[in-house]
């Protein structure tokens, strides 16, 4: 069941109506049933592993709670539980089939959203093991942590300490909050259908025929794909936050104007925020506090100039690359982002005097980070590592008037021209308005009633007609990019 589809909107409306029609004590169960149905609609096979994951973390959590005073046993349960989850995730991502004998084999199908709910499950066990939260006695809340349908397929990666108390709250219907959530869903549809899916046309043309093009078109494709990825994923995130908001549940906002970042440290505080914060809390900080590198090589007190922190930063992005996909393209993508962050930290350490940057310098920094990120996204989008290698090695070829004006290049650029102004305007709208001055919803709510409802109506019409006629017909929106992870 795609988020941008008629069946999903019908399902969401029916779930919303039933949720608020029943007594408060029954509402978490309604969310559980709706989430089960969501998975069953996708495929009956898809529901098995998330159910087993939820049961597993509930049982391990309860055992850790019983053995809270027995540190060794509790740590054994914690590490065993995390190891099982990581091994299952690796098996689903990297194994295509399991052979038993010469002729019999079992095909391994990766469950939808497994990367996301596995990280939620790991954080729950880690938080219980560290004593940050108590283990849930009611398995229903572990099921909702893993399977709650707005965040089931592509996040956000919520923590049990943040999301579970919301499932246990006394739900009170707020018409204004419901209207805001509905508007956020509409904005998400517009990002996806009006921008991301249109940008996919020239992007697919370039990357599916990468050997036909040289530097100018490859750079163009990388830039367009960066915008496609942003609007696709942030559109999904808006819809997920909006759908959860209809039930009184507040999810984490995953984006805060990432393409206004002046360095990569800032970029990763604005891009896929729930993943970045998860990697920081459950990978980087434990590695840093363990001081494993210093114990292994230095065996003395830790010096901030030693390479341990830099290595930990690099390892975090290596994990991020592995988490995203199984190919070498994602591994290289993660390693490059790790390298950018390590270089930034080295520059920061060796800078003796802080120099004030002019506004021009700030703009140049933003442009530089965006372009470097866009070129790195070649590895994220390329079909194979060989095609990515071709693209990178041909970035500086064909930069002459005759090459740029070849028929193939003009054909691709003409396809791009139809959507260029649209994505530029919406990017300015999203980055320059939403982030610096608060959410767009807050701005619209502050308008006079007539203007406010006129905007609501216009946005709904735009989303509706683009949904009907975009990408080949009725309800035929492309799949979200992050659904593959």
Search tags:
globular, 485 residues, mainly alpha, 2 domains
Write a brief caption for the model.
This protein is mainly α and 485 residues long.
Q: What is the count of DSSP helices, taking H or I runs of 4+ residues?
A: 20
Q: Using the alpha-carbon principal axes, give the shape.
A: globular
Mean pLDDT: 83
Helical fraction:
55-70%
How many separate domains make up the residues?
2
Q: What is the terminal-to-terminal distance?
A: 16 Å
- Please, what is the oligomeric state? single chain
Beta-strand content estimate: under 5%
Instruction: Enumerate the strands of the largest sheet in spatial order, edge to edge or round the barrel.
Output: 1-2
Major sheet: 2 strands, antiparallel
Question: Structural class, from secondary structure content?
Answer: mainly alpha
N to C succession of SSEs: HHHHEEHHHHHHHHHHHHHHHH
| Radius of gyration of CA atoms, rounded to a whole number | 24 Å
Number of strands: 2
What does this structure look like?
- This protein is mostly helical.
- It has two domains: 6-172, no CATH class; 177-484, no CATH class.
- Helices cover 69% and strands 2% of the residues.
- It has 20 helices and two strands.
- The chain has helices at residues 6-21, 27-42, 48-66, 71-94, 114-130, 139-147, 160-167, 175-207, 215-245, 264-270, 273-290, 292-298, 308-324, 328-350, 359-381, 385-393, 401-404, 407-434, 440-445, 449-469; strands spanning 97-100, 104-107.
- The chain has a two-stranded antiparallel ribbon.
- A hairpin with a 3-residue loop joins strand 1 and strand 2.
- Helix 1 runs antiparallel to helix 2 (27-42) and helix 14 runs antiparallel to helix 15 (359-381).
- The longest helix has 33 residues, at 175-207.
- It is globular, with a radius of gyration of 24 Å.
């Amino acid at each position: 069941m795609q988020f941008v589809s008629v069946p999903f909107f019908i399902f969401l409306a029916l779930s919303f109506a039933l949720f608020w029609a029943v007594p408060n004590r029954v509402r978490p169960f309604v969310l559980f049933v709706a989430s089960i149905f969501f998975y069953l609609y996708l495929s009956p096979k898809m529901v098995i592993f998330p159910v087993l994951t939820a049961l597993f973390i509930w049982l391990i959590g309860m055992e850790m709670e019983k053995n809270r005073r027995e540190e060794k046993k509790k740590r054994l349960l914690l590490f065993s539980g995390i190891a099982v989850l990581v091994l299952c995730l690796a098996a689903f991502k990297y194994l295509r089939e399991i052979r038993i004998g010469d002729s019999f084999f079992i095909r391994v199908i990766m469950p939808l959203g497994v990367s996301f709910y596995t990280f939620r499950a790991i954080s729950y066990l880690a938080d219980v093991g560290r004593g940050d939260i108590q283990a849930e006695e009611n398995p229903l809340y572990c099921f909702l942590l893993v399977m709650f349908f707005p965040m089931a397929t592509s996040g956000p990666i919520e923590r049990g300490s943040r999301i579970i108390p919301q499932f246990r709250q006394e739900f009170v219907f707020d018409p204004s909050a419901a209207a805001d959530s509905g508007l956020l869903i509409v904005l998400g549809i517009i990002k996806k259908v009006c921008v991301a899916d249109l940008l996919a046309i020239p992007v697919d043309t370039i990357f599916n025929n990468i050997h036909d093009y040289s530097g100018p078109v490859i750079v163009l494709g990388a830039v367009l794909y960066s915008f496609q990825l942003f609007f696709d994923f942030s559109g999904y995130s808006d819809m997920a936050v909006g759908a959860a908001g209809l039930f009184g549940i507040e999810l984490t906002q995953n984006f805060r104007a990432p393409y206004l970042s002046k360095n990569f440290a800032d970029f990763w505080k604005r891009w896929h925020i729930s993943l970045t914060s998860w990697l920081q809390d459950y990978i980087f900080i434990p590695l840093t506090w363990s001081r494993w590198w210093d114990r292994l090589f230095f065996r003395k007190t830790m010096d901030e100039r030693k390479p341990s922190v830099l290595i930990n930063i690099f390892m975090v992005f290596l994990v991020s690359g592995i988490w995203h996909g199984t190919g070498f393209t994602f591994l290289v993508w993660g390693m490059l982002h790790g390298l950018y962050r390590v270089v930034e930290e080295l520059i920061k350490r060796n800078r003796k005097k802080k120099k004030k940057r002019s506004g021009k310098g700030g703009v140049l920094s933003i442009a530089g980070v965006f372009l470097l990120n866009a070129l790195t996204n070649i590895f994220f989008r390329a079909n194979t590592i060989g095609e990515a290698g071709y693209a990178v090695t041909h970035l500086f070829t064909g930069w002459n008037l005759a090459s740029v004006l070849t028929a193939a290049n003009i054909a691709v650029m003409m396809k791009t021209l139809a959507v260029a102004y649209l994505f530029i305007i919406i990017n300015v709208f999203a980055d320059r308005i939403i982030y610096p001055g608060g959410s767009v919803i807050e701005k619209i709510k502050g308008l006079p009633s007539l203007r406010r409802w006129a905007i609501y109506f216009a946005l709904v019409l735009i989303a509706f007609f683009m949904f009907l006629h975009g990408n080949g017909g009725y309800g035929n929106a492309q799949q979200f990019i992050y659904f593959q992870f």
